[in-house]
Amino acid sequence: FCTPCLQECLKPKKPLCGVCRSTLSPGSRALDLEKQIETTETTCNGCNKKMYLSKMRSHAASCSKYQNYIMEGVKAVTKEPLHNTRNFPNRFTFPCPYCSEKNFDQEGLVEHCKTLHSMDAKQVVCPICASMPWGDPNYRSANFMEHLQRRHRFSYDTFVDYDADEDDMMAQVLMRSLRDK
User: Fold this and answer.
1) pTM higher than 0.70 for the full model?
2) 123 close to 140: Cβ distance less than 8 angstroms
3) Which residues have CB under 8 Å from 125's CB, separation 6+?
4) Which terminus of the chain, N or C, has less C-beta within 10 A?
5) How much is the pLDDT for 86?
6) Please, which contacts does 156-160 make with residues 24 or more away whose CB atoms are closer than 8 Å?
């Protein structure tokens, strides 16, 4: 977790678990988890030395073979990207077209707009549609809230192959429909 998110969870008014958001009791410790960490054995990926999980962090900080192992992994991942990512539009996070608040996923944008902008009649461009290959970044929806509720009930990523040609997709759909009979 990043520091601002942890700070939010640990505010004096409401200390919450960073994962499940349940209320934390001040000073309570997860003794069962501590015991499991103390008794679970693991092997260092660098030097193959066996140790308990509770000792792994301090060992990893001083094990040069482990550090080399990590650096090899970093080099392998950062060598050369497969695609030039600058040519791909961001289809994962969107700004609110009303208030320009940023970094909503699709579901978050729908919820944000339903909560804060349900009565706003201003015609706006749908940032989700504008990011799609078929999207028009200049098209302003006459009723954006209805558009969101009809068109964005699900994520396109589940159903769309952005790299496929439209004719190919239509042929695949027809083939599948014939097989399903």
Assistant:
1) no
2) yes
3) 97, 137, 138, 139, 140, 141
4) C
5) 54
6) 156/91, 156/128, 156/132, 157/91
